[in-house]
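S.,

As promised, the pyridoxal-5'-phosphate run. Input:
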Amino acid sequence: MELYNLKHPDQTVSFSQAVRQGLGRDRGLFFPSSLPKLDNVDELLAMPFVDRSVAILNAWLGDELGEETVASLVRDAFTFDAPLAQVCDRQYCLELFHGPTLAFKDFGARFLARVLSHLAGEESLTILTATSGDTGAAVADAFYGLDNIKVVILYPEGRISSLQEKMFCTLGGNIQTLSVAGSFDDCQSLVKLAFEDEPLKQAIGLNSANSINIARLLAQICYYFEAVAQLPEERRHQAVISVPSGNFGNLTAGLLAKAMGLPVKRFIAATNSNDTVPRYLSNGQWEVRPTVATRSNAMDVSAPNNWPRVEALCQAKGWSLAQLEGVAVSEAECETQLTALHKGGYLSEPHAAVASRALSLSLNPEECGIFLGTAHPAKFKESVDELLGLDLPLPEALAQAAVKPLLSEFLANSFEELRAKLL
Ligand SMILES: *Cc1c(COP(=O)(O)O)cnc(C)c1O
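Predicted complex:
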């Protein structure tokens, strides 16, 4: 597989290089030089999720990593299902929250972890990342127990919920968690300093595993096929998929699935009040406003970092951006939709409710809607309990973590101390 830098098209790299480097020159995103097309989509849709995912990822990676290797990485990463739940007559939810940390990020993070571990071989790597809560859990869990990779996670002391802290600070083993006397921005600055320290980088094989990594995106293509595979066959060609979006990695993966030949009539880019993309799609002006806090906080992003990939993909396929519908959903609409879904017998959470609301606004009579359920309702227990008058029980994974002791160490807000710890 060859990829090129969207900012400097003359810079081309292999998949392995793209995974190791993350970003290209001038922080440009890597994008595939060619897009594979599958000629046996109906056959693939009849296959079980994991076998089909092996075939999909082999179309991208088989030539570089070898088909057997890809198969074993996929089988090891995708150990949970993505069921399609019918929510009402014309809406389905693709539930992506049945993985170990109860959010769709498990798919991408688990695949990336196994790819990196494979590429590192005998070499040892250190993943260094800062978290304000949720990504820490997905990354820690995904890399837990991989013996050539050490993970160091920084988070602001006392500024994440205690349940969030329990989810990634109780693992031990190759996962080291540092509670920093400072803010999330301080944690990010420390990480940045580490990546600028060339001798340190070389000494410990530093890598960031962040969300623009191409390995994560490719893994996410697989569950779009799973969504369409579970639709009744007569509805297959009328599918409209609504994606609750923040950094737009998820939507990019959906468009890549369509580029490979998956029948999807159209996509909806659903956002909360952080609506840079819906405004851009309607008036052509890219205007980034200050980020506002909402209940769907994983989507509180006003400068989405994957957007250049969406544009590059549309250009490569000759698709007009106008085919993509942007829908911004207000906080009040999100709350109303969450309540309406619950009245109809479906328990959801704010991110999925935004996507469901966008479908309700946009679906034509002959179409069939799918929205992505990106997180388990209990992960947003506070909002869900308050809006629906419930006291949601904690799922097994959360309940188990909640009673384990914290293993974090304290770290002053000092790069020298961090550097010493890393070495
Ligand atoms: C990360 C996240 C999103 C946004 O996904 P992007 O790929 O950044 O657009 C939506 N919902 C939840 C629950 C998330 O954690």
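The domain at 82-101+214-392 is CATH 3.40.50.1100 (Rossmann fold). The first strand starts at residue 2 and ends at 5.

- D.
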